[in-house]
Amino acid sequence: STQPNLHSLYLGLLDALDFQQLMKVVLNSVYHSVTKLLHSPKITSSSSERSLLRNLGMWLGQMTLARSKPLLQRRIDMKELLLWGYESGRLIAVCSFVAKIMEGCRDSKVFRPPNPWLMAILSVMRELYELDDLKMNIKFEVQVLCKNINIKIEDIPRSDILMKTKAPIKERNPDFNVRVGASIAASPSTDPSPTMSNAPTPSISSTSPQSTVSTQQLPRAAEEEIDKPIDMAGLQEQTVIPNLAAYVTINPSLQLFVKNPALRRVVPLAVDRAIREIIQPVVERSVTIASVTTKQIVLKDFVIEPNEQLLRNAAHLMISNLAGSLALVTCKEPLRVSIGNHLRSLIGTAISDQSVLEQLVQVCSSDNLDLGCKLIEKAATEKALRDVDEGISAAVQLRKRSRETGQPLTDPAVAKGGRFPRELPDALKPKPGGLLAQQLVVYEAFQRMRNAPTSQPSQQTQTQQPLLMSPPMPSGMSPMQSQSQPAPVKHTDLKALPPAAAQLASGDGAAPIVSGPVISMQQALEAYQLCLARVDMALKTIAAQLPGRELSLALLGGDHEILTFLRDVIHITQRVNPTIRNETAMSFAESIFKRLIETTAMDMLRLEIMVGLLEALRDACGGVKKFSPDIIGWLTHYSTFNSTDETSRKVFRTILVLLLKAKLVRSQDLDMYFATYMDGGRNMMWVEMALSFVRQCLGEGLAATFEFTNTFETVSKMRPTNATIRKQLQKWLTDLRLLAASKDEQKAGTTTNVTPPVASREAVSLRDHVTMLLERWLRIWTTSNDQVFGQYLQVMHQYGVLKSEDGAEKFFRIATDLCVESCLKNATPAPPAPPTGQDGPTVQAPQLNLTVIDALSKLCLLLVRLADKEAGDLQVRLNLLTRILNAVARSLIDEHEAKKVSNQTFDQRPYFRLLVNLLQDLGVPDPKQDPNPALLPVLQQYGQVFLALQPAAVPGFAFSWLQLMSHRCFMSHLLLMKGQKGWPVMHRLVVLQLLFLQPFLKVAQLNEAIRRLYKGTLRVLLVLLHDFPEFLCDYHLSFCNVIPTTCVQLRNLILSAFPRSMRLPDPFTPNLKVDLLPEICQPPRILTDHMSILNEPRGLRQRIDSYLANKQPADVPSQIPALLSTSGQGGAYNLPLLTSIVMHVGVQAIQSKAALQNSTAVEFFKALMTSLDNEGRYQFFNAIANQLRYPNNHTHYFSCVILCLFSDAEHEIYQEQITRVLLERLIVHRPHPWGLLITFIELIKNPRYTFWRRNFTRCAPEIERVFESVARSCIGPAAAGTMQQQGQQPGLLGAVNDKSTAVLAGRQ
Question: Which of 179, 243, 260, 537 has CA atoms 20 to 30 A from the CA of 49?
Answer without folding.
Answer: 179
